[in-house]
Fold these 3 entries.
Entry 1:
Amino acid sequence: QVQLVESGGGLVQAGGSLRLSCAASESIGSINVMGWYRQAPGKQRELVVVITRGGLKTYGYFVKGRFTISRDNAKSTVSLQMNSLKPEDTAVYYCKAVAGSDEYWGQGTQVTVSS
């Protein structure tokens, strides 16, 4: 059972930046995929970006070069650098890990972007 804890959310003005971090309770070296999803009020949860163990990244359509994911297997962390934030980026951001057929989710961290 992998536990994921997100941090780094908060309130930022449009055009600003935030960095989210996700710390895993055990080594992520064997975890196939890690990444971030988000859910805005009244909307479905959607992909932000995921990264495989081999470093392959898949971004959500709306990212358009604004967000960058990084994975540190030694520290068992995954980070998300978000730049040029927009009000429509306001959502709860969730960390996700996929290990074999098992999926794990963090409890989420709120990101609010004011106009």
Entry 2:
Amino acid sequence: QVQVVESGGGLVQAGGSLRLSCSASGRTFSTYVMGWFRQAPGKEREFVAAITWTGSHTGYADSVKGRFIISRDNAKNTVYLQMNSLKPGDTAVYYCAASGGVELTATSRTYNYWGQGTQVTVSS
């Protein structure tokens, strides 16, 4: 079992930045990939970014590529999502998730453990 907890959400003006944190605990050695997803009210959950614990391989959704940066600190079992040049369309609840898969994946069902989410609101 793995527990993940997100933090760092808040209200920011368009063009501003926020950094989200995701702390993992439990059987973290059984996870290989950490991902960020987001979901706006009434909309489907969508992939944002993912990173591997080993090698720091990363992947991004086209909508955030060049603006968001995912990183991790293995010693702290923590993953970060640095969000720059934020747009109102980025407004959503952001979820951190852990996967036992061996490769980067953008598919929600491949992630086994999920956090409760943190709200990000970008004003125009």
Entry 3:
Amino acid sequence: QVQLVESGGGLVQAGGSLRLSCAASGRTFSRYSTGWFRQAPGKEREFVACITGSSVSTLHADSVKGRFTISRDNAKNTVYLQMNSLKPEDTAVYYCAAGRYTTVVSGYDYWGQGTQVTVSS
């Protein structure tokens, strides 16, 4: 029903910024809440941020609050994650997902392939 493709990952120095994009296909995309999750080697996939379909509400994990901002543009079928003041511990594969407005992995039905973010010190 919904296909998601992340882009914008790469290598950045600590303190730098990066903006991730998630391009979605499917005419019902605006009905879904969207989340960003990340997974570092050897660790569980963890919640980063989520946003309701109409952008009325957002949630950000404590670890990224004040540094990362989730947003979406339904006219472009795209979700964004603006990442500022990046830290080495932000290094992970970042995944975009569509589903319910929740912080848990199981609440999402559709997932992108992921994009690597590496923050050097």
